[in-house]
Design goal:
Elements: E1 20-29, H1 36-48, E2 53-60, E3 65-72, H2 75-83, H3 85-98, E4 99-109
Antiparallel strand pairs: 1-3, 1-4, 2-3
């Protein structure tokens, strides 16, 4: 998942009833970012149409490390996103142009809870 939301939320994605899946994409970007914003916006639109997509959190450190966490109801939803042709093309371009390095971790969530100040 290589998305950086165009409008980062001010609250985290809610806690869901487990099990569900997360894809944690951590990246350092290159100086060359031509076309990145447009591709990122398109990826945001695409992933929202995946049945079982639950949401996304994003954070970036001042030093440039970006972390995107995508939440998916089940493995089938995550597989559909991973297999999307436009997403695959964006990943290929990301490796060629936009990312200095990245890691992807996929995990099944077994416990989840949240807190919100009233």
């Amino acid at each position: 998942m290589s998305n950086i939301p165009s409008e980062a939320p001010v609250t985290p994605v809610e806690a869901f009833d487990p099990p569900y899946y997360v894809a944690v994409f951590t990246a350092v970007r290159t100086q060359e970012q031509s076309g990145y914003s447009e591709t990122n916006a398109r990826m945001e639109d695409l992933v929202k149409n995946i049945p079982g997509y639950l949401g996304m959190d994003y954070a970036q450190t001042p030093g440039g490390l970006a972390i995107t966490v995508g939440y998916f109801r089940d493995a089938d939803a995550l597989t559909e996103w991973r297999s999307d042709a436009e997403h695959r093309a964006a990943q290929k371009r990301g490796r060629a142009e936009w990312y200095e390095s990245y890691t992807l971790h996929v995990a099944k969530v077994e416990r989840s809870h949240g807190f919100r100040r009233a």
